[in-house]
Design goal:
Length: 94
């Protein structure tokens, strides 16, 4: 699962939401770009993460996207440039 978000940070509340959204994503996956996380989740974890994130954002100013890459996700991800790739199934230390 690829989780992306855009949180409006023009207010103090927005900056707080941004930190909260990032913290939730870090608990379930690996940051690959500033607002992009790769996560390996079962169906229950996905429902939990979605619920947490949807309840954190302001749907009038923020957005969330969930991209399901499926079981063969490794063949669907191509990386170039800085920050070397990694195996998202490796041990995640939080």
């Amino acid at each position: 699962m690829l989780i992306t978000y855009d949180v409006n940070t023009e207010t103090v509340a927005g900056r707080k939401r941004l930190r909260q959204v990032a913290r939730v994503c870090q608990n379930y996956g690996q940051r690959v770009q500033n607002s992009v996380f790769e996560c390996v989740l079962d169906a229950g974890q996905l429902l939990l993460v979605k619920d947490k994130l949807i309840n954190l954002i302001d749907s009038g100013t923020d957005s969330l996207r969930f991209y399901s890459l499926g079981n063969s996700y490794k063949s669907k991800v191509e990386h170039h440039g800085a920050k070397p790739g990694f195996d998202v199934t490796d041990l995640l230390i939080v």
